[in-house]
Amino acid sequence: MKVHVFDTKEKLYDEVSNYYIERLNKNPNLNLGLATGTTPIPLYDRLIEAYKKGLVSFKGVKAFNLDEYLGLEKNHHQSYYYFMRNQLFNHIDINQNNCFIPSGDNPDHETAKKEYQELLKQNQVDIQLLGIGSNGHIGFNEPNTPFDTKTHVVKLDEKTRIDNSRLFNSLDEVPTHAITMGISEIMNAKEIIVIATGSNKKDAVYEMIKGNISENVPASVLQRHPNVTVYIDKDAASRL
Ligand code: PGA
Question: Can 142 be counted among the known catalytic residues?
């Protein structure tokens, strides 16, 4: 695991976005595993800016998102379908037919799971982007998720619902369940980039990098992946 610590978030996001631009210019047909949440937004902003300046194109990219809430309509402002279009896809030249997100609005969860599992079997992700939950989750794989899981439905941890309630009107509105790429599918990516900022991530970051590999901390599994780079700011790195 390579770990890069930055003095400022600006430097961190500049570095990650330059890396993506360089990789996309070398291989315009990358399969990108993408993430939602607050963490990737400054990266997506920089990628949009680079696209507008003609420095990068996403025409050949396929995008595979980690997860989606269950039960929200696609056009709900907190659905990840809406988030991805609003924060990235509507502002770049990606073919939206090549943007995949697990179907949280399909009441037939079994079919939704199988479809996403099959999609990921057919398309190996080249670079998987990850944030990390303050409880150490990756995607919505909450603590004690077995490492061999594929795409599955999860009951969200109370801590996750509380963390995410800042984006809803109240905690009651935060969905109780989600559909997420499984840990084994995340680990199948050729390369993984993890970004974490802020002191509320310091314990999860410490456990991911220095803790025992344990299903109690899903992100600790990344110690077993041969190509992971972690980009963190000083606050997130403060326990290392
Ligand atoms: P955040 O979420 O970027 O909103 O902090 C990260 C995560 O839960 O994976």
Answer: yes
pLDDT tens for each residue of 36-57 = 999 999 999 999 999 999 999 9
Instruction: State the pairing for strand pair 127-130/191-196.
Output: parallel
Supply the pLDDT for residue 75.
Answer: 94
Catalytic residue among 142, 185, 207, 233: 142
Residue 48 near residue 91, CB atoms below 8 Å: yes
Choosing from 9, 13, 34, 36 the residue with most ligand 1 atoms within 8 A of its CB, the one to mutate for a pocket test is: 36
* Whether 155 contacts 177, CB under 8 Å: yes
Active site includes 10?
no
Domain positions in the chain are 2-198+217-232
Does the active-site annotation cover 137? yes
For 4-22, what is each residue's pLDDT tens digit?
A: 999 999 999 999 999 999 9
CA neighbours within 13 Å on the CB side: how many for 127? 20
Cβ(157)–Cβ(218) below 8 Å: no
Helices assigned H by DSSP within 27-156: 41-52, 80-87, 109-122
Extract the runs of DSSP E, i.e. beta strands, from 13-81. Answer: 31-34, 62-65, 67-69
The predicted model scores a pTM of 0.97
For the domain spanning 2-198+217-232, the CATH number is 3.40.50.1360
Per the annotation, the verdict on 135 as an active-site residue is yes
Mutate to test the pocket of ligand 1, among 9, 39, 69, 231 (most ligand atoms within 8 A of CB): 39
Give the model's confidence band at 221: pLDDT under 50 very low, under 70 low, under 90 confident, else very high.
very high
